Amino acid sequence: MSSHGGADRAAERTDGARVIPLRPDLVPPDEPAPSAPGSELERRLAEALAFLRRRLTGDYEVDEFGFDPDLTESVLLPPLRPLYEKWFRVETIGLHHVPSEGGALVVANHSGTLPLDALMTAVAVHDDHPARRHLRMLGADLVFRLPVIGALARKAGHTLACNPDAERLLRAGELVGVWPEGFKGIGKPFRDRYKLQRFGRGGFVSAALRTGVPIVPCSIVGAEEIYPKIGDIRPLARLLGLPYFPVTPLFPWFGPLGAIPLPSKWTIEFGEPIPTTGYDEGAADDPMLVFNLTDQVRETIQQTLYRLLSQRDNAFLG
């Protein structure tokens, strides 16, 4: 018999079965219980029902621009995440340069035939930034004239690319995104990839100067390869009221399948903010100052693109 008496003896259950105690060193560490097979589905269903309840009861807010954060987070962002995470495998650099609060202007290069680069930048700022901020994008008037697309853009918080709207958003402490190349950027031929087009008249710099917010240069590598534009059917573009009708190696030859973007590997780098404070009153109306700051932002993005491209081994691997 053991010297510890009953402490080392097998315990007996009331039904007579013997219980053999485990040695402490053989007890496995606590592990989280595996998720039940239906738990993820149940969670999503619960979220969907909660969303519908909020819509039916009116328990959501919309700002003066039509921005609906609840709809954006529950309906508009989720379909973009598979593209962001699995298809383009977006890598973000320098997100700490994006302020966690207060107004700031993100200025990025534009490319890719369709403006998926703007959408992926919005996902990056919301999902990968600790503050999970919404990027309020400034878009061309064509975007807001399109059926369904225009209404959804308003719901997602985007507005027309004009200085009054930009300044109102910046003064309200919003994070605003602008792609100054416009259609010249996304519609340029593939042979001109990663060569920045003109940045317009620098209206975005004037808006930043008037509101005193920092300008965050943003460089996007990978979007140029999703729809390599090798031609333009201009008569059809004029007929449809579009800036161009692209011809790519797959579109329009393969119909709807040709509209699937190629799975290039993306990198989005946010550069060090360029301050706009400390200038004399009326600086926003000084054309030379506006031109110099615009050129500084453009050159910063261009040089970053060259650096990122020199570090990339393959457009589709990684």
What features would you describe in this structure?
- The chain has 318 residues and is of the alpha/beta class.
- It is 36% helix and 12% strand.
- It has a domain at 68-226 and 261-311: Glycerol-3-phosphate (1)-acyltransferase (3-Layer(aba) Sandwich), CATH 3.40.1130.
- It has helices at 39-57, 69-76, 81-87, 116-128, 141-145, 149-155, 163-171, 182-186, 203-211, 234-240, 287-311, and strands at 11-12, 18-19, 91-93, 104-108, 135-139, 159-160, 175-178, 215-221, 231-232, 246-247, 267-270.
- The strands form three sheets. Strands 3-11-8-4-7-5-6 form a seven-stranded mixed β-sheet, sandwiched between helices. Strands 1-2 form a two-stranded antiparallel sheet. Strands 9-10 form a two-stranded antiparallel sheet.
- α9 (203-211) packs across α11 (287-311).
- The model is unreliable at 1-28 (pLDDT under 50).
